[in-house]
C-alpha cells in the first residue's frame, strides 16, 4: 500500500500498476477475490495505457488465477490464453510455461484430463529447459493431480513427492502445503486414511500459517472426508463444519458480486453436501435440513435481502444457528425439501402443523442408470419441443448465420419421442416414497440441482393420474426465499397496474446475409391483446415494445406479462431493438432483456408471467437454476410463472385465456394455473403433456386486484 501511495505521489504510472498487481495477490490469498480482481484490473488498465506488454501479461495471469479460485474456469482459461499469447510474443518462456500449467489446471477442473495432461507436460518441459525449479515443482504437482484423476495413483504419488521435495528445497510454503494436500487426496483414494490424515493435517497447518482461508477450508473438507470414509463420523462432522464456515466467510467477502458467489459456491459444493449428508447419517435429520437450507440458493437470497430488508446484513444469516422452528416458521402449506446425493434422494416433508418427517430413497439398478441419465440431460430432454420460438436464440452470431423456418423447426420437433415411462420413473423416485405423507390439495417443492427442471405437474403414478390432478404445485428456490417474501412489508408489492408485452418487432434482427432471423409471433400479439381487453390495459406490441420502454415501465406494475421469443442458452428475452440512431449494427444489449437488466430494475410485481419458451431454463448449479426467472425473483417479484420448454403458440393462447379468466375472478395464481392445465388436458387438440405441462409457478401464490389495474 505504501508502494502504491508513493507511486501515485510521484506520478509513476508503471510503479502504480505494479503496486496494484502486488496488492491483488495477497487479497486473493486471503479470499477477498472482489478486491483482488479490482486491483488486477487497475494493473491491466495501466499496463495497456503504457504499452507495457509484460505488465499486461502479468495482469492477465493474476486475473486468471483469481477467477480460477472462484471456480469460473472458462473465464480463467480466457485470461490464461491471453497471457500465453503475450508471453510467446515477448519470448518469455517462463511466462509461457506458467500459462500452460494454469491452463492445464483449468481444463482439469472442467473434466478434460487429456487436454490438462498435454498442457502440464508442456509446462514441465519448459521449466526443465529453463532450470526453473519452482515451476518444475508446480508442474509435477499438476501432473500428479491429472494422473490421480485418471486413476493412476502410483504415478500421482510419485509426482506429488517430487513437488514436495522441490517446495521444501526452495522454502516454498504454499507449494509445500499444496503438495501435502495432494498427497493426502491420493492416499485417501487408496484407502490409507491414516496417511491421508497425516498429510491433510500438514496442509491445514501451513494454510493457517499463511492465512490462506480457501486452502484452510479445503484442508478441513479433506480431513472430514478422511474421517467419514474411515467411519469416524463425529470427527468428520467437526471438520466439515469448519470447512463450510471458512467457505462462507470467504464468500461473504464477495459482497454483491452475484456471479462470483455462484462460481465460488459451485467450486466448494462438496463441502456443503458432506455436512448435511453426515448429519443425516447420524440421524440428526432436523439439523441436516437446516444445513441443507443454509446452502440452498445463497446468492439469490442475498439479492432478495437487498430488496426486502435493506437494514438486514446481507451476510449475517450465513453463520447464524438456524433451528428447525426458524426454517418452518412461515410455512403454511405442506412442503417437500429435496436433496440429491448421487443415486440417493433425501426428503424432508414439512406439514401445515410444522412437523418434519424425513425419508431416504436410494434408486437402484437400471432405474438408477436411467434416472441419472435423465438428470444429466436436463431431466426430460424429449420434452424440449419447439413451439413459440421459431428458432432458439443461442448467440447473435448464430442468429446472423442462419434463419430457420417454422416448418423446419416443427418437423424437427415431430421426430422427438415422447416417453411416459420417464414420467412414471420420476414419480416413482421423487413422489412415491413420500406419497403416504402428503395430504390436502396444495404442495410446495424445494428441488435440488437438475430436479429444478422437472415437470412435476406431469409426473404419472401407477393409476395413470398426473400429480397436478391431485395437487396445486409451486416450486420454491429455498425456504429462506419463501420467508423473505412472506415477511416483506404489506405494501412492498404493488396492488395495481399491468405491463403487457407481446410480439415485439424483431424484423431488424438479421443474419449475415441480411435475412430476418426471428419471425413475428401473431399468437403472442393475440395473447396480450386478449389479456389487455380483460384488464382494460393497452399492451406494448411491435415497435413500441422496445427494451428501454419495457425497463422504464416494469417497476410500476403489479402484473408483468411478456410474450416473446425466449433465449434458451443465455436466459434472456428478445424485445424490439432500442432506437440506436444511424447505427445499422445491432448488439444483443440493444434488444435482449438479460438477467442483469432485470436485476438492475426495482420490481414490485406480485406476478410476472414469462410466456416465452424455456423461461424456466438456465444453467443448473448448486445455487439452483441461474436464468431469467431467478433474475425476476432477485429483483423483487413475488411470484413468477414460467415455461420449462418451448411452448406451442396456439396452445399457449388457449391456456392464457383460461388462466386469466380465473385470475380475474379472484382465484389465486396456483388455482388459475391448475385450471388452465386442466382445460388443455381435457381439450381434444391440446391434451398431450407437451402442451399443458411446461407451465410452472415459482415462489408465492398470489391474487391480483384487476379492478384497479390501469
Sequence stretches where pLDDT stays below 50 over 5 or more residues: 310-320, 378-418
Helix fraction bin? 40-55%
Tally the beta strands: 16
Distance between the termini: 57 Å
- Oligomerization state: single chain
| Average pLDDT figure | 84
Structure description:
The chain is α/β, with parallel strands linked by helices and 710 residues long. It is built from 30 helices and 16 strands. The strands form four sheets. It has a six-stranded mixed β-sheet with strand order 7-6-8-12-15-16, sandwiched between helices. A hairpin with a 2-residue loop joins β1 and β2. α13 runs antiparallel to α15 (269-281). It is globular, with a radius of gyration of 27 Å.
Q: Concise description?
A:
The chain has 710 residues and is an alpha/beta fold. It is built from 30 helices and 16 strands.
Essential attributes:
five-stranded mixed β-sheet, 30 helices, alpha/beta
Tell me the layout of helices and strands.
Layout (H helix, E strand, L loop, with lengths): L1 H9 L2 H17 L3 H18 L2 H18 L2 H18 L2 H17 L3 H18 L2 H17 L3 H18 L2 H18 L2 H18 L2 H17 L3 H20 L5 H10 L1 H13 L3 H10 L3 H11 L15 H5 L6 E7 L2 E7 L5 E7 L2 H12 L19 H6 L4 H9 L5 H12 L10 E5 L25 E4 L3 H8 L11 E7 L17 H14 L4 E3 L4 H7 L5 E5 L1 E2 L6 E2 L17 E2 L1 H6 L6 E4 L8 E3 L2 E3 L1 H7 L4 E5 L5 H16 L4 H13 L7 H4 L2 E5 L11
Parallel strand pairs: 1-4, 4-5, 6-7, 6-8, 8-12, 12-15
Antiparallel strand pairs: 1-2, 2-3, 9-10, 10-11, 13-14, 15-16
Amino acid at each position: 500500500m505504501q508502494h502504491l501511495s508513493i507511486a501515485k505521489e510521484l506520478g509513476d504510472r508503471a510503479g502504480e500498476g505494479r503496486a496494484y498487481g502486488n496488492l491483488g495477490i495477497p487479497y486473493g490469498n486471503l479470499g477477498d477475490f472482489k478486491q483482488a480482481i479490482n486491483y488486477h484490473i487497475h494493473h491491466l488498465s495501466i499496463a495497456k495505457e503504457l504499452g507495457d506488454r509484460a505488465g499486461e501479461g502479468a495482469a492477465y495471469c493474476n486475473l486468471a488465477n483469481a477467477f480460477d479460485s472462484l471456480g469460473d474456469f472458462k473465464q480463467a482459461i480466457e485470461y490464461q490464453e491471453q497471457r500465453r499469447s503475450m508471453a510467446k510474443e515477448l519470448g518469455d518462456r517462463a511466462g509461457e510455461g506458467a500459462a500452460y500449467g494454469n491452463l492445464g489446471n483449468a481444463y482439469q477442473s472442467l473434466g478434460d484430463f487429456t487436454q490438462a495432461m498435454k498442457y502440464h507436460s508442456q509446462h514441465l518441459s519448459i521449466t526443465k529447459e529453463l532450470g526453473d525449479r519452482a515451476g518444475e515443482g508446480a508442474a509435477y504437482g499438476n501432473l500428479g493431480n491429472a494422473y490421480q484423476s485418471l486413476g493412476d495413483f502410483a504415478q500421482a504419488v510419485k509426482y506429488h513427492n517430487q513437488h514436495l521435495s522441490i517446495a521444501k528445497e526452495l522454502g516454498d510454503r504454499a507449494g509445500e502445503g499444496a503438495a501435502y494436500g495432494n498427497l493426502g487426496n491420493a492416499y485417501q483414494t487408496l484407502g490409507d486414511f491414516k496417511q491421508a490424515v497425516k498429510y491433510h493435517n500438514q496442509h491445514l497447518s501451513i494454510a493457517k500459517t499463511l492465512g490462506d482461508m480457501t486452502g484452510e477450508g479445503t484442508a478441513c473438507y479433506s480431513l472430514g472426508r478422511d474421517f467419514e470414509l474411515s467411519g469416524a463420523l463425529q470427527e468428520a462432522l467437526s471438520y466439515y463444519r469448519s470447512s463450510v464456515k471458512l467457505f462462507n466467510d470467504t464468500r461473504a467477502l464477495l459482497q454483491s458480486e452475484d456471479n462470483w458467489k455462484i462460481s465460488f459456491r459451485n467450486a466448494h459444493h462438496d463441502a456443503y453436501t458432506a455436512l448435511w449428508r453426515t448429519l443425516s447419517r447420524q440421524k440428526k435429520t432436523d439439523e441436516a435440513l437446516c444445513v441443507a437450507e443454509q446452502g440452498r440458493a445463497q446468492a439469490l437470497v442475498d439479492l432478495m435481502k437487498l430488496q426486502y430488508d435493506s437494514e438486514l446484513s446481507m451476510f449475517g444469516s450465513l453463520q447464524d444457528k438456524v433451528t428447525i422452528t426458524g426454517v418452518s416458521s412461515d410455512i403454511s402449506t405442506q412442503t417437500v425439501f429435496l436433496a440429491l446425493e448421487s443415486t440417493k434422494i433425501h426428503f424432508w416433508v414439512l406439514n401445515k402443523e410444522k412437523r418434519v418427517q424425513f425419508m431416504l430413497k436410494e434408486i437402484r439398478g437400471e432405474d438408477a442408470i436411467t434416472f441419472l441419465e435423465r438428470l444429466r440431460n436436463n431431466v426430460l430432454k424429449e420434452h424440449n419441443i419447439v413451439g413459440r420460438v421459431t428458432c432458439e436464440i443461442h448467440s447473435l452470431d448464430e442468429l446472423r448465420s442462419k434463419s430457420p423456418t417454422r416448418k423446419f423447426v416443427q418437423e424437427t420437433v415431430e421426430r422427438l419421442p415422447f416417453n411416459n415411462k420417464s414420467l412414471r420413473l420420476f414419480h416413482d423416485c421423487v413422489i412415491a416414497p413420500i406419497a403416504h405423507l402428503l395430504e390436502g390439495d396444495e404442495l410446495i417443492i424445494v428441488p435440488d440441482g437438475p430436479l429444478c427442471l422437472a415437470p412435476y405437474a406431469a409426473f404419472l403414478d401407477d393409476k395413470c393420474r398426473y400429480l397436478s390432478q391431485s395437487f396445486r404445485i409451486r416450486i420454491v428456490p429455498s425456504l429462506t426465499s419463501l420467508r423473505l417474501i412472506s415477511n416483506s412489508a404489506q405494501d412492498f408489492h404493488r396492488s395495481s397496474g399491468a405491463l403487457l408485452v407481446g410480439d415485439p418487432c424483431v424484423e431488424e434482427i438479421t443474419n449475415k446475409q441480411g435475412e430476418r432471423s426471428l419471425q413475428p409471433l401473431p399468437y403472442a400479439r393475440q395473447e396480450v391483446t386478449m389479456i389487455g381487453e380483460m384488464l382494460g390495459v393497452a399492451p406494448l406490441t411491435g415497435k413500441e415494445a422496445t427494451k428501454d420502454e419495457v425497463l422504464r415501465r416494469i417497476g410500476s406494475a403489479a402484473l408483468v406479462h411478456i410474450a416473446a421469443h425466449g433465449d434458451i442458452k443465455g436466459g434472456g428475452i428478445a424485445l424490439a431493438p432500442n432506437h440506436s440512431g444511424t447505427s445499422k449494427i445491432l448488439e444483443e444489449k440493444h434488444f435482449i432483456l438479460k438477467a442483469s437488466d432485470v436485476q438492475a430494475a426495482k420490481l414490485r410485481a406480485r406476478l410476472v408471467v414469462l410466456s416465452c419458451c424455456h423461461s424456466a431454463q438456465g444453467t443448473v448449479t448448486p445455487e439452483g437454476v441461474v436464468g431469467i426467472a431467478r433474475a425476476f425473483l432477485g429483483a423483487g417479484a413475488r411470484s413468477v410463472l414460467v415455461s420449462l420448454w418451448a411452448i406451442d403458440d396456439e396452445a399457449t393462447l388457449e391456456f392464457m385465456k383460461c388462466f386469466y379468466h380465473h385470475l380475474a375472478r379472484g382465484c389465486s395464481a396456483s388455482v388459475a394455473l391448475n385450471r388452465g392445465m386442466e382445460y388443455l388436458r381435457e381439450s381434444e387438440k391440446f391434451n398431450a403433456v407437451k402442451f399443458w405441462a411446461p407451465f410452472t409457478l415459482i415462489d408465492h401464490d398470489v391474487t391480483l386486484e384487476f379492478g384497479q389495474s390501469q
